[in-house]
Amino acid sequence: MKTKSLIFSAFTIMVLLISCVPKAKQTETAIEKTEKVVKKGPIYDTSDPKSMLKAVAYAHGGWGDLWKKGDVEYVYEYRSSEGKADVSTERYIFDNEASLGKYSLHQINVMPDEDGEVIQFFDGEQTSVMVDGTKTENPQLLGVGDFLRRANYFWFTMPYKLTDQGTIVSYQGKEDHEGKTYDKVQVTYDASMTQKEQNDIYILYINPDTKRIDRFYFSLPFLGVNEPVIIADYEYQNIDGQIISTKRKYFLPSETGYADDPNIVQTLSNIKFNNGFTVENLMENL
Whose CA is closest to 264, among 79, 83, 108, 88? Predict the structure, then answer.
């Protein structure tokens, strides 16, 4: 296991990047088929862990409902225990996974210790980054921008992405946490699709009553953390029928275990759907 200091030095960006493996985009046709199957709600069966994840998606409001909302805008704050933060206005379009982030504060992952307005824009095919209104060709800024655009979108839509093509799901039994008995489900990826020696691993703690993922452990193979030892605790709000993880706390392991306070806290606020965004107007009125 990596030490806390080693993990933290890279975690501040990689916690957002772990899910950037090839995944199929959901289509409207697939949504319509899914809605017919789960009209009355899917069965939650621990002997069929994929059914459990379908129940999770349904309980969060359903991908079909999110698709019909078209797009979303929200304010995203990513703050470390040291007091530094990245704060951005995030915009996504669901049918092509276009993603935009305009940073009003960037002290951790995006041009830390440098001035200048930063806008990252993924149009569904490629990413561009603008610093003070000028496109940059800096490969590091473009690489970070591309990762964050795809990863931030994944985290927002995570309940609907866990059954994407290439996922491998298994039931891991029950475990008590803070007075509640959770069902544990492991999710990883098919190496033949990802072409990776080590794939990301999630251990999801599903509340069997609410069908929400209240916490999960995950790995960071890119940093040599091949076991799911980083903890994420989620808190939710109902935003226009969608159950959104508006507060996320992350705990990093060390030689002495886990601290009582999180190392990273992410908050989502001022969430608005149905803004009429298109690829052409996504950067307007920021």
Answer: 79
Neighbours of 235 (CB within 10 A): 13
pLDDT band, residue 222 (cuts 50/70/90) = low
Residues 6 or more apart in contact with residue 93 via CB below 8 angstroms: 70, 71, 99, 124, 277, 278, 279, 282
How confident is the model over 212-221, as pLDDT tens digits? 999 999 987 7
Tokens of 163: 């059954």
Segment 150-185, tens digit of pLDDT:
989 999 999 999 988 889 999 999 999 999 999 999
Which class for 126: exposed (0-12), middle (13-18), buried (19 or more C-beta within 10 A)?
Answer: exposed
Label the pairing between strands 167-177 and 225-239.
unpaired
Ramachandran area for residue 13 (φ above 0: left; ψ -120 to 50: alpha; else beta): alpha
Quote the pLDDT of residue 17: 44
Model confidence pLDDT, tens digit, residues 41-57: 789 999 999 999 999 99
Signed CA dihedral, 124, 264, 270, 118: sign only: negative
Residue with tokens 């039994």: 173
Does residue 254 surpass a pLDDT of 60?
yes
Structure tokens at 176: 């008590």
Task: Read off the pTM.
Answer: 0.85
For residue 2, what are the β-bridge partners? none
218, 194 Cβ separation under 8 angstroms: no
Q: Which residues contact 186 (CB under 8 A, 6 or more apart)?
A: 169, 170, 171, 172, 201, 202, 203, 204
The DSSP call for residue 232 is E
Closest CA to 80 of 13, 12, 16: 12
